[in-house]
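USER: I would love a firmer grasp of how sequence relates to backbone shape in proteins. This is the protein in question:
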Amino acid sequence: MAYELFYWGGIPGRGEFVRLALEYAGADYREMNREGSVADLLTDPEIITPSFAPPYLRDGDVVIGQTAAILHYLGPRLGLAPDDEASRNWMLQIQLTIADMVAEAHDVHHPLGMGRYYEDQKPESQRRAEEFRADRIPKFLTWFARVLDRNPDGPQHLVGGAVSYVDLSLFHLMRGLQYAFPKAMGHVADQYAPVFALADSIEADPKLTAYLESDRRLPFNQDGIFRHYPELDA
């Protein structure tokens, strides 16, 4: 039975982290992105493990939400996580840290809340962007660089000696940041060259070529998590 990925249509969002793992592994999956289909399992009384919000995955009788939890579940099944529990838990920690940065990147353009338009919070967004560019981007990238440097199997991957789901997720995070903050990310490219190199290697991986060149790879846009407002970049 094919995996079923439930996420909103039209934006890469958090669903893209799951989608990249499924595509890289060549897994059989279906996109369930019609609005009704996405909402159905959120309120279905027959589901005893209801998700809070998309993305969520259905694998037979298993329904699991939260990006990091989905990838923790899929990793061993797709060959994108090591066999030992310690390494899998370490990968979960990395994925949760990626999720933290994703949330902070989103909150740059919506610091007062998701219910308000960006235009209603521009002054606050500009102040939030200054801190994000100056402090938060370097802090996170320093940590990712440290993880690469301390990988016993070499700095080409975050964990182990082969591509794992956290490598794929870091690629998407980096491309999202480069879309939203091209100037800021350009300023730190040399300082964090190994992190940028990992993202480039994932993009060049033949296992992703067909997907990245297809219309299944949704472009970043002004409705998603990563949004490019020139006044927030420097």
